[in-house]
Design brief:
The structure holds two protein chains of two kinds. Chain A is of the alpha/beta class. Chain A has a single domain, classed as P-loop containing nucleotide triphosphate hydrolases (Rossmann fold, 3-Layer(aba) Sandwich), CATH 3.40.50. In chain A, 37% of the residues lie in helices and 29% in strands. Chain A contains eight helices and twelve strands. Chain A is globular. The model of chain A has no long low-confidence stretch (mean pLDDT 92). Chain B has two domains: 265 residues, no CATH class; 67 residues, no CATH class. In chain B, 19% of the residues lie in helices and 39% in strands. In chain B, strand 3 and strand 4 form a beta hairpin. The N terminus and C terminus of chain B are likely disordered. The chains are: A alpha/beta, B alpha/beta. Chains A and B meet through helix 2, strand 7, helix 3 and strand 8 of A and helix 6, helix 7 and helix 9 of B.
Chain lengths: 252, 443
C-alpha cells in the first residue's frame, strides 16, 4: 500500500524528517508514536500534500504511484485521507454540500458513478450514526462553532463517508474525553479491513486501548528508531519515551 | 418627451431641465440645484470624502442625453415576470410600464415621476432629503432628472412581492450618453414594501441617480440596489433614506458592474426606535473602481443600526469603503455596529477601508471594525485534502465569503441573479458554487 524510503522532508528549509523508512501493507494498522517535535505531524502533512512541506530526498510510493508528485486533491482522490490535528473552520461552506462535492470528485476519479442528493444523504445518515453525530451538524458550516471533540468526530465522519484506502490520523485522539475517544476508535475500526490501511499518529497510548495496531513504531528525531507489536505501546506508556531516546543516543 | 431627446449639455455649466407641466416648486428646485452645481463644480480629490476617487475621466467627456439605446441591446428584465410591478427606463426615459395591475390596489401607486408631480405627497417629500446644497452630483441630478419611479404605499398597506425599477443604459465612445434617474419611495405609516432598483447596460454611458426613501412610522422597507452596469460605464448614485419612529429599513447595495462607480447610501434615523440594517457587497475585477460611501445619522434615541459591507477584489480592481456613523447628542441608547470585510484575490487589487464613528453622547453601544484578507490557505488545503480540486475549492471559499450577504436576500430570483453576476465578475471562478444553496437546503 505505502512504501516510504529514506524520506527527508521539512518546512521553511528546516529538515525535520531525516531518513524515515516505513512500509504499510494493505489491511494493516500502524501506530506511530513519539515525543513532541519528533516529526509525527510533518510525516502526516507530507503524505497529505500540505503546501510548504517539502520532501528533499527519498521516495514515497503509494499503490505503485509516486505520491509526492501528486497535488493534494489527487492524493485524496486516490484514496489517501488525513484526519487533521487542527481541523479548520470554514464559515459559509455547508458541511453536507462540501462532503458531497468531495465524495463525488473522488468517485468520479475512481470511475464510480456520482451519488445524487438522496443517495448521498442516505449514506451520510448511516455514517453519522457510526460516529454518534447529530444530524443538525450537517447543515452547519464546516467545523464552525464546533467544540474540539466535535471537530475530531467530524473528521472521522468524513473519513467514514469518503471510505479511503489509506487513512492517516494525525493526533486525532489528543484532547478527547473517553467517550469521544471510543467513538473515534469505533469509526476507525469500522474502516479497518482487508482492503484499508490505517496510520495512527499519536503521542499517547490511550487510543490504542480501543484500536489495536498490528505494528507500533517509535519516531524520534525524524527517524523510526524502534518498531514492534502492540506491546511496544504499553511499554512506552509505562516507561515514557526517555529510555528509547537513551537507547538511540547509546547506539550512536 | 421632446425636451430630452438629443439635448447637448456642457457639464462645466448646466441649465436646468424642465418638463412640461412641472409644478412651480419643481421648477424652482431645479433652478437652484443647477446653480448649486455650477457653483460647486465637480467634486475633486482635494475633498476628504472624495480623496480616493477622481472623476476626471468622467468630467472630460462631452455627455449627451439620448433616450434611444444602441439597437442591439436586448431589453429583457433580469427578473422576468416575477416582480409584481416593473418600470423600465432606457437611458433615463420610460421604456416600459408593467405596473398597471399593482395600481389597481387602492393603497399602491407606482408611476413614472413625470406623472406624479402633482401628488400631495410628492410635493411634501421630493428633494427634501437628498441635499443638493453641498452635494454636486445630487445637485446635478436634481437639475437634470428626466424620469424615474414614484412609489407610494398608503398607511397600513402591506405589499406582497417586490417592485422592480429597471434602468438600462447604452452609449458609445463616439456618442456618450448620460442619464439622471430620480426615484421617490414613500412608505406610509405601518406599510410594508420591497423595492429592487437595478442598473444594467452596454457600452459607454454615465448614470447619475438619486433615490429618496421615506419610511413612515412603523413602516417596513426592504430596498435593494443592484448595480451591474457595463464595464465601460460610469455610475454615481445616492440612496437617501429618511426613517421615522419605529420604522424598519433594510438597505442592500450590490455592486458588480461599472468601470468607475460611486455609491452613496445615507440614512437619517429621525424617530425613536427606528432600526436599520445596511448591507453591501462589491465584487470587482479588471480595472473596476468602486467607491462606497455611507453615512448613518442617529438623530433620535433608541435606534439600532447594523452595517455590513463586504468586498471581493480581483486583478487590478480598486475598492473603497468609507462609512461614517454619527450619533447626535440626543440619540441616547443608540445601538450601532459597523463592519467592513474585504477579500483580496490578487496582489494588485487595492482596498481602502475607512470605518468612522462620531459619537456625541456617552449613553450608546457602538462598535466598528474592518478586515482585509486573502483566501484562507488552511481552508483551501482542507478542501483539497478531501478531493476537491483547487479551482472548485477557491469557488467555494469566495462564495462562502459572499454568502453571508447573498443568502440573506429574501427574493430568490434576485439572489440567483446576484450570484450569477458575482461569478461572471471573477475570472477563474465558475458558477459551480451556486448549487450550494439548493443542495445545502436539503434535510
Amino acid at each position: 500500500m505505502l512504501d516510504i524510503n529514506n524520506l527527508h522532508a521539512g518546512i521553511d528549509g528546516k529538515e525535520i524528517l531525516k531518513g524515515l523508512t516505513l512500509h504499510v501493507g494493505t489491511g494493516e494498522v500502524h501506530a506511530i508514536m513519539g515525543p513532541n517535535g519528533s516529526g509525527k505531524s510533518t510525516l502526516a502533512n507530507v503524505l497529505a500534500g500540505r503546501p510548504k512541506y517539502v520532501a528533499t530526498s527519498g521516495t514515497v510510493t503509494y499503490q505503485g504511484k509516486d505520491l509526492l508528485a501528486l497535488p493534494a486533491e489527487e492524493r485524496a482522490r486516490e484514496g489517501v485521507f488525513l484526519a487533521m490535528q487542527y481541523p479548520v473552520e470554514i464559515p459559509g461552506v455547508n458541511n453536507i454540500y462540501f462532503l458531497k462535492a468531495a465524495l463525488n470528485s473522488i468517485r468520479k476519479h475512481q470511475g464510480q458513478e456520482e451519488l445524487d442528493a438522496m443517495e448521498f444523504l442516505q449514506l451520510a445518515r448511516e455514517k453519522m450514526k457510526l460516529v454518534e453525530m447529530d444530524e443538525t451538524f450537517m447543515n452547519r458550516s464546516v467545523n464552525e462553532g464546533f467544540s474540539g471533540g466535535e471537530k475530531k468526530r467530524n473528521e472521522i465522519f468524513q473519513m467514514a463517508v469518503l471510505d479511503p484506502k489509506l487513512a492517516i490520523l494525525d493526533e486525532t485522539d489528543s484532547g478527547l474525553d473517553i467517550d469521544a475517544l471510543r467513538i473515534v476508535a469505533q469509526g476507525v475500526n469500522a474502516l479497518a479491513s482487508e482492503k484499508h490501511s490505517v496510520l495512527v499518529i499519536t503521542h499517547y497510548q490511550r487510543l490504542l486501548r480501543y484500536l489495536v495496531p498490528d505494528f507500533v513504531h517509535v519516531l524520534a528525531d525524524g527517524r523510526i528508531v524502534k518498531s514492534g507489536g502492540k506491546e511496544l505501546a504499553e511499554e512506552l506508556e509505562q516507561k515514557g519515551y526517555e529510555w528509547i531516546e537513551d537507547e538511540v543516543a547509546a547506539a550512536r | 418627451m421632446s425636451s430630452v431627446l438629443d439635448r447637448d449639455i456642457r457639464l462645466a455649466s448646466v441649465d436646468p431641465l424642465h418638463i412640461d407641466g412641472e409644478p412651480d416648486r419643481v421648477r424652482r428646485v431645479r433652478a437652484q440645484a443647477a446653480e448649486r452645481f455650477n457653483t460647486l463644480g465637480w467634486p475633486t480629490t482635494r475633498r476628504e470624502e472624495w480623496k480616493y476617487t477622481s472623476l476626471t475621466p468622467l468630467t472630460s467627456i462631452d455627455w449627451k442625453t439620448d433616450q434611444r439605446l444602441p439597437e442591439d441591446r436586448s431589453l429583457a428584465s433580469p427578473f422576468g415576470d416575477r416582480p409584481i410591478a416593473e418600470l423600465m427606463f432606457a437611458n433615463g426615459s420610460l421604456y416600459a410600464n408593467r405596473a398597471t395591475l399593482a395600481n389597481e390596489h387602492p393603497g399602491i401607486r407606482i408611476v413614472p415621476m413625470r406623472e406624479a408631480m402633482d401628488a400631495e405627497s410628492f410635493g411634501q417629500h421630493f428633494a427634501r432629503y437628498a441635499g443638493y446644497e453641498k452635494h454636486a452630483l445630487t445637485a446635478l441630478n436634481t437639475a437634470l432628472w428626466q424620469d424615474g419611479a414614484y412609489i407610494e404605499i398608503a398607511p397600513g398597506t402591506a405589499v406582497e412581492g417586490f417592485i422592480h425599477i429597471f434602468y438600462i443604459g447604452g452609449g458609445t465612445a463616439d456618442h456618450p450618453v448620460m442619464s439622471h434617474p430620480r426615484n421617490l419611495i414613500v412608505a406610509g405609516r405601518g406599510s410594508q414594501i420591497t423595492v429592487v432598483e437595478s442598473y444594467f447596460g452596454k457600452g459607454m454611458y454615465f448614470t447619475n441617480t438619486v433615490t429618496e426613501i421615506v419610511a413612515g412610522e412603523g413602516a417596513v422597507v426592504d430596498h435593494y440596489k443592484f448595480e451591474n452596469e457595463s464595464l465601460e460605464a460610469f455610475h454615481t448614485g445616492t440612496v437617501q433614506i429618511h426613517q421615522e419612529r419605529s420604522s424598519n429599513v433594510t438597505s442592500r447595495t450590490i455592486a458588480t458592474g461599472g468601470g468607475l462607480v460611486r455609491n452613496e447610501i445615507n440614512v437619517a434615523l429621525t424617530g425613536e426606535g427606528a432600526s436599520l440594517s445596511m448591507e453591501g457587497l462589491f465584487v470587482l475585477s479588471g480595472r473596476q473602481h468602486v467607491d462606497n460611501h455611507t453615512v448613518i445619522d442617529h438623530i433620535a434615541p433608541h435606534c439600532d443600526s447594523l452595517e455590513l459591507f463586504k468586498g471581493i477584489l480581483d486583478e487590478n480592481a480598486r475598492g473603497i469603503f468609507d462609512g461614517r456613523i454619527i450619533v447626535e447628542p440626543n440619540a441616547v441608547k443608540t445601538n450601532s455596529r459597523q463592519t467592513n470585510r474585504n477579500l483580496l484575490l490578487s496582489e494588485s487589487a487595492v482596498i481602502d477601508s475607512k470605518p468612522t464613528l462620531e459619537i456625541h453622547n456617552d449613553d450608546v453601544k457602538c462598535n466598528h471594525g474592518s478586515t482585509i484578507g486573502q483566501l484562507d490557505e488552511e481552508a483551501l488545503f482542507y478542501l483539497r485534502a478531501r478531493g476537491i480540486g483547487e479551482e472548485e475549492a477557491r469557488n467555494l471559499l469566495v462564495y462562502a465569503f459572499a454568502s453571508e450577504i447573498v443568502e440573506r436576500m429574501k427574493i430568490d430570483v434576485v439572489r440567483e441573479n446576484v450570484s450569477r453576476a458575482l461569478y461572471s465578475r471573477l475570472p477563474g471562478l465558475k458558477a459551480e458554487g451556486r448549487k450550494q444553496k439548493a443542495e445545502g437546503g436539503l434535510r
